[in-house]
Please model this.
Amino acid sequence: MKLVFATHNLNKFKEVQSLLPDTIELVSLTDIGCYDDIPETETTIEGNALLKVKHIKDNYGLDCFADDTGLEVKALNNAPGVYSARYAGPNASAENNINMLLENMTGIQDRSARFKTVIALSFKGEDILFEGICQGSIISQKRGAKGFGYDPIFLPDGKNQTFAEMTLKEKSTIGHRGKAMQKLITYFS
Ligand code: IMP
Model:
């Protein structure tokens, strides 16, 4: 069965592809010739995930799913949250965002945080949401070179490696996106 994963992020595509059973053929936005700048204008993670699948459904008529993720830091009232990608500004790099977060956390004792992924699935005319949460904490210096985004400063609870020090498989097993994906897989099995 063909299913579009509405993302331009190759890291995420690979991560999700490695989790799906062979019965599902994952198709990217590039595969369907979609180079649209899909808006992420909602104020919640759920809203943005739904916007993306609606765009594909309305413009390409294909079943698809999209994910939206945010890093929620407890002491910062759950910021950066839905604004994680552009925390340090509209064209911020991962490094800019990390630096901004570390700066805003200077002197803060409670470093607890969580990644939250919401997957919106548009399938046979129905919209369904799946959520995955990974609890952890924000360390004060970057560690590791794997992964992407905030991975070098996120230490999952009970682990002594940051997401950026883990293999893709290790991260997927305990990570937010992996957990949401497991729910999607269970839905199809
Ligand atoms: P998106 O909505 O999945 O594109 O994620 C928004 C932003 O959150 C990204 O630009 C990344 O900075 C960050 N992010 C999403 N997923 C992860 C992850 O698994 N690890 C680290 N950062 C992530």
Summary: Strands lie at 2-5, 25-28, 64-73, 79-81, 112-123, 126-138, 154-156. The two ends are 12 Å apart (CA to CA).
